[in-house]
From TrEMBL:
This is histidine kinase. Its EC number is 2.7.13.3. PROSITE patterns: HAMP. It catalyses: ATP + protein L-histidine = ADP + protein N-phospho-L-histidine. GO terms for cellular component: membrane. It comes from the Bacteria. Pfam families: HAMP (PF00672), Tll0287-like (PF11845). The keyword Transferase applies. The keyword Cell wall biogenesis/degradation does not apply. GO terms for biological process: signal transduction. Gene3D superfamilies: 6.10.340.10. GO terms for molecular function: ATP binding; protein histidine kinase activity.
Length: 290
């Protein structure tokens, strides 16, 4: 095995090792980062929903309440305001979602589906549970969700959600008498559920990791070429020349020329040694001949 092949084998092995270790670490790190970003995103969306709810109660509802006798305006309902606002946001940010998933909802679109029902049941079973997070997959991809319980803490809610008789007539006209009644004070009746797509963040993470690994491969390829060129030029070729000259000289070609003596490194010292040996041998041969 020649010198260059040995160097290249060692270099390629080290490179493969470095690539696996560094690539693995970087990929793990960016993926973790992406996941943290998704969680952050979901929590921020939840805060947006809460802000819209609060705004509706303090700024919209008081103005619209006097109209309640004539016809019911869902714009006064915080659940409606938050759901509608985030549905509009989701048009610009596909995959984002917000739902006030409820076991027995006034508006059927708020009915909890299978997995949401389980989330709500867990909240109902453990009143101390403040939020739940997790991942779900549906037709549009994998999503991360954050859920918070909706508990009836205020007796005023029961004006519309206890019995059809207690509810405003305009509400019954619009929504009927079947759904959204029978809620109890302090009961957990549903959950606010924010969902955020994980795909975008994961794709971005993969892109960053790929770019990093690509750069690493590029740098190593450059080093590989440079190392080979320098090895050839500084070591392999001059050593071969000395070996070739020594070979010729040992076979009696006394006119084998000397090497120039400018080089200051180990190869230079090898060349000088050859020159010295050549001179001594020539002198010895001369003496013998005489
Ligand atoms: C003036 C009547 C009224 C009052 C008071 C009221 N709601 Fe509602 N609520 C509604 C109506 C109507 C809807 C359905 C809105 C829609 O079309 O999405 C609704 C929807 C909801 C929903 C979404 C699930 C569903 O039933 O469709 C939740 C959760 C909710 N209300 C909770 C509350 C809470 C908590 C309170 C008290 C802080 C409260 N509501 C007070 C009328 C009322």
């Amino acid at each position: 095995m020649n010198l260059k092949l040995k160097f290249n084998l060692v270099f390629a092995t080290l490179f493969a090792l470095a690539l696996v270790v560094a690539g693995g670490i970087v990929y793990r790190l960016v993926l973790k980062n992406a996941q943290a970003e998704v969680v952050h995103d979901a929590r921020r969306m939840m805060d947006v929903a809460l802000a819209v709810r609060d705004y509706t109660v303090t700024h919209v509802k008081p103005h619209l309440d006097p109209l309640l006798d004539r016809h019911f305006l869902p714009e006064t309902v915080p659940a409606f305001a938050a759901t509608e606002t985030i549905a509009r946001l989701a048009k610009a940010q596909p995959g984002y979602g917000y739902k006030e998933a409820t076991l027995n909802p006034t508006n059927p679109r708020n009915a909890a589906v299978d997995w949401e029902r389980e989330v709500v049941e867990r909240f109902r079973a453990s009143p101390d549970l403040k939020d739940q997070t997790g991942e779900i997959a549906d037709a549009s991809g994998t999503k991360f969700y954050v859920a918070r319980p909706i508990q009836i803490r205020n007796a005023a809610c029961l004006a519309c959600h206890s019995t059809p008789e207690a509810a405003p007539a305009s509400l019954i006209t619009k929504y009927g008498r079947e759904h959204g009644f029978g809620w109890q004070l302090n009961e957990v009746i549903g959950a606010q559920v924010v969902s955020v797509p994980t795909q975008v963040a994961n794709d971005k993470a993969r892109e960053v990791a790929t770019a990093f690994i690509g750069t690493l491969v590029g740098v190593f390829a450059l080093l590989f070429v440079a190392l080979n060129m320098l090895l050839q030029r500084w070591v392999v070729t001059p050593v071969r020349q000395v070996a070739h000259a020594a070979n010729r000289f040992s076979q009696g070609e006394m006119d084998t020329p000397e090497f120039p003596e400018g080089r200051k490194d180990e190869i230079g010292s090898l060349q000088r040694s050859f020159n010295r040996m050549r001179r001594s041998l020539t002198k010895a041969m001369d003496l013998l001949r005489r």
